[in-house]
Amino acid sequence: MIHSRIRIACRVLGIAFACCAPFASQVPASAAEPTVVTIARGLRHPQDICVRPEGGQPSEVFIADRGAGKIIRVIANRPDTIDDVIVDIPVSKAANDQESSGGVQALYFLDHLRLLIGGTDQDNRPFVRSYELQDVAGGLQFDDQKQQVSFPEEPGSATHGIRGFRHFARTRVNDRVTDALLLATADEGGMGALWKVPLKAGTLGDITPLQSPKRSDTRATIGGIAVGNSGYITVAADDSENAVLKFVNPIDGTSEFEAGTRLSHVVGLCYAPTTGDLFAACSNPKDSKADGVYRLDDVGEKSKPRCRATKIASVAQPTAVACGPDGALYVTALGDASKSEDSGVVLRLTDF
Questions:
Q1: Is 293 helix (H, G, I), strand (E, B) or coil?
Q2: If you average pLDDT over residues 135-141, what whole number do you get?
Q3: b/e per residue, 312-333, with b = 16+ CB within 10 A?
C-alpha cells in the first residue's frame, strides 16, 4: 500500500494509468480543528482568488469580485482592509448566480507585477487581459491593460464557443514543456475545455486548444485546474456525485491517470508549494453539509490508485481556494447569500 499524498501518484504515472474503484462513501473529517479567520467580508460575488508571489507585503491576497466588477486586494495580517486593484470590469446581469457566465471569473499572477484576469463581457465575449501593478492605490481601470489575448469571433473559429473561464494555471517548464498559460473554459452548456497561451519574453501568444477537438479525454464540467511538482495538469472533472481528478499531459492534452474523489461539485484546486499536498474546495447544491475544503490523499495499490478526500474545514458555498507560501489556505465563499447580496467573504485557514 502507498500511504502518501496525491503527488506520489503522479510520479508513478509511467507505471499505472488506471481509474480508481469507488471507496468508502463517507468522507472523513480531519482530526485537527483548523484556525479559520475572516480577513474580508462584504463582497458581492467573490469568484476566484490568488496570492501575490515573489515578495511584496506578506500574504497579499487578490480576489475577483464578479458581482462588484473589480479585483480587490486584502493583506492577511490587516483583516478587513480592502484595496481596489482593477475597477469597472463589465458585470453580467446574472453575476450573482454562481453558475452563470459573465463578468470577471479568473485571475492569475505571472510574476510579482503582472496580473492576468479573464471573463466575459455583457455580450458574452471572452477576454483575458494582463495588467502591470505598480501601486494599487486608487485602482486601475479595466481598459488599462498592457496586453490582451485575441479571441476570433467568427463562427468557425476554435474559440467561438467559449462562454466563461473556470481557472488559470501555468505549465512547469522543462526540456519538453514550454512556458504557457493554461485556461479552463466552459461553453454555453457548461462543458469544459483546456487551452494554452504561449508565454515568450513576457508576451502573451495566441490561444490554441491544448487538446484536439476530436479527443474527449477532458470533456466534462471542469471545477478547477492546478499544476503540481510532477508537471501534469490536475483537472477536477465534475461527474455527478464523484468528481474525477484527471492528470493531463501538458504537451498533447491526453489524460494519463484518473482518480475518483467521491466529492460533488468541486469549484477549485490548489497545491501547497511547500508540501505538494492537493486541496479542493467543494460547493454542493444538494447537500450544504458537504460544503468545505478537502485535502486529497492517495491511498491504494499502484495498480488500483484511488483518492481519499479528508474534510479539513466546513465553509458555506466556497467558490475558490488558493495556498500561500506560508502554507495557509485562502478561500472565497458566498456565505449566506439569502440574507444579503454582500455576504461574500475571504477566509484564512491554518493549523489543519
A1: strand
A2: 77
A3: bbebebbbbbbbbeeebbbbbb
DSSP secondary structure code for residue 290 in this structure: G
Determine the Cα angle at 279 with ends 71 and 265, to 5°.
Answer: 80
How far apart CA 191 and CA 179 sit, in angstroms, is 26
All three cell numbers of 198, joined, read 504561449
Q: What count of other Cβ atoms lies within 10 Å of the Cβ of residue 193?
A: 23
pLDDT tens-digit series, residues 147-183: 999 887 777 777 888 888 989 999 999 999 999 999 9
State the cell numbers at 280. 479542493
> HEC states along 140-194?
EECCCCCEECCCCCCCCCCCCCCCEEEEEEECCCCCCCCCEEEEEEECCCCCEEE
Find all residues with CB under 8 Å of 313, minimum gap 6, and list them: 30, 34, 36, 292, 293, 331, 349, 352
List of residues 6+ apart from 333 with CB closer than 8 A: 46, 315, 316, 317, 318, 319, 344, 345, 346, 347
Residue 338 is given by DSSP the state T
Separation of first and last alpha carbons in the chain: 25
Helix (H) / strand (E) element for 51: namely strand 46-51
One-letter amino acid identity for 26? Q
Domains of the chain plus CATH, in order, are 2-350 (2.120.10.30)
> For the whole prediction, is pTM greater than 0.90?
no
- Alpha carbon 232 to chain centroid, angstroms: 15
The partner residues of 333 in beta bridges, in order of sequence, read 318, 345
In which residue are the cell numbers 475577483 written?
64
Task: Give the alpha-carbon dihedral of 332, 281, 60, 352, to 10 degrees.
Answer: 120
- Size (the chain), residues: 352
Cα separation, 332 vs 92, whole angstroms: 19
Query: Which strand (E) or helix (H) includes residue 10?
Result: helix 6-11
Handedness of CA 97, 166, 144, 342 (dihedral sign): positive
C-beta separation of 133 from 189 below 8 A = no
